[in-house]
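Ops channel
N.P.: pipeline sanity check, posting one input/output pair.
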């Protein structure tokens, strides 16, 4: 089974532990309001925005690599990159939200991330 990874032209990170994906983590958001003329506004008009959440689990060595990838490869929320899951499915995404990296057990750190499909 291949490892999950984030990759960008300028670098990548391959995870030792597979990321956790909570059930129902795919959301389809539509326009919140509609004008009198029937035009949606608020989010992209009547388009679906695919968001999903992962909890990446990292070794201590991967923590610094993850931080480097986020800050210097993806440049925070700016640049798209490829997320490849453990089944080998590659999806172009951007970071939407990144939580705090927390130590969960000896040499196991976790960080919740929200990704937006591009």
């Amino acid at each position: 089974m291949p490892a999950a990874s984030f990759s960008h032209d300028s670098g990548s990170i391959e995870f030792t532990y597979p990321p956790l994906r909570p059930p129902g983590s795919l959301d389809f958001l539509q326009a919140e309001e509609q004008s009198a003329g029937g035009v949606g506004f608020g989010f992209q008009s009547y388009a679906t925005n695919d968001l999903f959440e992962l909890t990446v689990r990292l070794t201590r060595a991967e923590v610094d690599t993850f931080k480097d990838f986020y800050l210097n490869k993806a440049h925070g929320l700016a640049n798209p990159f490829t997320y490849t899951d453990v089944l080998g499915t590659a999806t172009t995404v951007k970071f939407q939200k990144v939580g705090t990296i927390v130590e969960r057990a000896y040499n196991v750190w976790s960080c919740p991330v929200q990704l937006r499909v591009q």
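N.P.: looks fine end to end. The longest helix spans residues 60-73.
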